C-alpha cells in the first residue's frame, strides 16, 4: 500500500446516542449490539430510531441489530455521535460471515468486469457504490491503474487497510487516491489523514474512444463523473452536425464527446476556473476545437437571451443544488431558474438534455419543474428518454433516494 491508514483520529461532532438501560433479555445478545425503536428496511437509522446500544459499542464497530421485540434483525456499522447512528448492510437472522466484506467486494468487481464488461468500452468506471454494493460509506472508481476512493463513514475508513489490497489484486491497479467529503468528515467525526505527496496527481483514461485527463488534486468527488458515461455517448450520437451548448460543462465530458463525434460547433460554459482549464486540456487531447467560457451560467444565459442566440442542442448538467431537506425549496428554485434560461436558448425542434444529481430531488418533481416552466413559457416538450446513472452505479430497492442522477431528454417546440 502507498500510505499508512492505521493512525486514525476522530473527534466528536455532536452529542452521542443516549445509552439507556439495556433490556433484561440483552444479557444473551451478541455484543456489541444495537436495539431499534422503529422498524425499517432502509439502511440508515437516525438517533431517534435507535432504542439503546450495548456499553461496548464504539465508533465504527460492526454491531448485531435487534428489533424492538428483541429479535435478530441484521448487522450494521455504528456511530454513536453521528447524524446517522446505524447503517445496516445485512438484514436477517443469520450470523455475519467472517468473509462478508471480501465477498461483497468480489461480487462488486464481478458485476463490472463479468456482467457489464466495462473494460471493453472504458478503463474508467465505478467499482464500489456504497450501500448498493453492501458497503456503506465506500465509493471506489477505477481510473486506469489508479483507484480513486471517496470515504463517507468512519467504519469504511477504519477498514480501508483490509479492503484496498484486495481491490488492487482483483483489478490490477497499482495505487490509490483517498478523498473525504467535508460534510461527511463532520457528520462521522473523522479527521482527514491524507498525505497528498503519496498520491498520483493525474491519470489519463479512455471512454468510448474519447480520452480524458483526470486530475485528483482539483477534481470534485473522485475526480471524474463516470455516472454520465452512457449519457455522454448517447448525447454525442444525437448531436452530430449540430451547434451545441454545454452549460456547467465541468471538465468537458459532454462537450468533448460531442465534438469528437462530429458536432458542427460546441460552446462550453462553467464558473469553475480549474474545471475549464482541465476541459481545455481534454479538448486538446482529442484535437477538438471548442469555444470555452469561464463565466457564471446565469449571467451567460441571460446575455445570450438578450443577443437572441439559440443552439440546436443544449445540455444542462449543474452541480448538486439540493444539499439537505431544509434547503429543498431553495434548490428547487435554482433548478427552475437554470432550466428556464437554458430552455430559452434551444432553437425550435432542438434537443434539450437537462440533469439533476440531487438525491433529494424526486424524479417526478424534477420533471414537473421542467415541463411546467416549458408550458408557462408557451413551449412544449417532446420527451424522448428518461435516463440516469450508468449501471455501474446501481440502486438498492430499499434505498431509492440513491438514484440521485436524473436526466430528461426532449425536443423543444
Q: Could you characterize the architecture of this molecule?
A:
With 413 residues, the chain is α/β, with parallel strands linked by helices. The chain folds into 3 domains: 24-91, PUA domain (Archaeosine Trna-guanine Transglycosylase, Chain: A, domain 4); 100-200, RNA methyltransferase domain (HRMD) like (Transcription Regulator spoIIAA), CATH 3.30.750.80; 203-412, Rossmann fold, CATH 3.40.50. It is 28% helix and 27% strand. It has helices spanning 100-115, 154-171, 182-187, 229-238, 253-261, 273-285, 297-307, 328-344, 363-376, and strands at 33-36, 44-45, 50-53, 62-66, 72-78, 86-91, 124-129, 138-143, 146-151, 175-180, 202-207, 210-215, 243-247, 265-270, 291-294, 311-316, 346-356, 381-387, 406-412. A 7-stranded mixed beta sheet has the order 15-14-13-16-17-19-18, sandwiched between helices. Helix 4 runs parallel beside helix 5 and helix 7 packs parallel to helix 8 (328-344). The longest helix has 18 residues, at 154-171. The chain starts with 32 loop residues before the first strand and ends with a strand. Residues 1-15 have low confidence and may be disordered.
Amino acid at each position: 500500500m502507498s500510505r499508512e491508514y492505521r493512525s486514525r483520529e476522530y473527534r466528536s461532532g455532536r452529542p452521542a446516542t443516549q445509552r439507556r438501560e439495556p433490556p433484561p433479555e440483552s444479557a444473551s445478545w451478541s455484543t456489541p449490539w444495537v436495539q431499534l425503536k422503529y422498524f425499517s428496511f432502509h439502511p440508515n437509522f437516525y438517533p431517534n430510531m435507535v432504542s439503546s446500544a450495548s456499553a461496548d459499542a464504539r465508533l465504527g464497530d460492526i454491531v448485531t441489530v435487534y428489533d424492538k421485540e428483541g429479535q435478530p434483525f441484521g448487522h450494521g456499522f455504528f456511530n454513536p455521535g453521528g447524524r446517522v447512528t446505524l447503517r445496516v448492510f445485512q438484514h436477517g437472522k443469520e450470523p455475519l460471515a467472517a468473509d462478508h466484506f471480501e465477498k461483497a467486494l468480489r461480487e462488486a468487481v464481478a458485476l463490472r468486469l463479468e456482467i457489464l464488461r466495462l473494460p471493453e468500452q472504458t478503463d474508467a468506471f465505478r467499482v464500489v457504490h456504497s450501500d448498493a454494493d453492501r458497503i456503506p460509506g465506500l465509493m471506489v472508481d477505477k481510473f486506469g491503474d489508479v483507484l480513486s476512493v471517496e470515504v463517507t463513514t468512519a467504519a469504511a475508513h477504519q477498514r480501508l487497510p483490509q479492503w484496498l489490497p484486495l481491490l488492487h489484486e482483483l483489478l490490477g491497479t497499482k495505487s490509490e487516491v483517498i478523498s473525504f467529503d467535508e460534510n461527511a468528515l463532520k457528520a462521522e467525526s473523522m479527521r482527514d489523514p491524507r498525505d497528498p505527496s503519496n498520491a498520483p496527481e493525474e491519470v489519463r483514461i479512455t471512454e468510448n474512444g474519447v480520452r480524458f485527463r483526470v486530475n485528483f488534486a482539483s477534481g470534485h468527488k473522485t475526480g471524474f463523473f463516470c455516472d454520465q458515461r452512457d449519457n455522454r455517448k448517447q448525447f454525442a450520437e444525437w448531436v452530430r452536425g449540430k451547434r451545441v451548448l454545454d452549460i456547467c460543462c465541468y471538465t468537458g465530458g459532454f462537450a468533448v464527446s460531442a465534438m469528437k463525434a462530429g458536432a458542427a460547433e460546441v460552446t462550453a460554459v462553467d464558473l469553475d476556473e480549474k474545471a475549464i482549464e482541465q476541459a481545455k486540456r481534454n479538448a486538446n487531447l482529442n484535437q477538438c476545437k471548442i469555444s470555452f467560457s469561464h463565466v457564471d451560467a446565469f449571467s451567460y444565459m441571460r446575455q445570450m437571451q438578450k443577443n437572441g442566440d439559440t443552439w440546436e442542442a443544449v445540455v444542462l448538467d449543474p452541480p448538486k443544488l439540493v444539499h439537505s431537506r431544509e434547503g429543498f425549496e431553495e434548490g428547487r428554485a435554482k433548478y427552475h431558474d437554470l432550466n428556464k434560461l437554458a430552455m430559452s436558448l434551444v432553437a425550435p425542434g432542438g434537443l434539450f438534455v437537462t440533469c439533476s444529481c440531487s438525491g433529494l430531488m424526486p424524479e417526478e418533481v424534477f420533471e414537473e419543474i421542467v415541463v411546467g416552466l416549458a408550458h408557462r413559457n408557451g413551449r412544449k416538450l417532446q420527451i424522448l428518454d428518461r435516463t440516469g446513472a450508468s449501471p455501474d452505479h446501481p440502486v438498492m430497492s430499499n434505498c431509492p433516494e440513491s438514484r440521485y442522477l436524473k436526466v430528461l431528454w426532449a425536443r423543444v417546440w
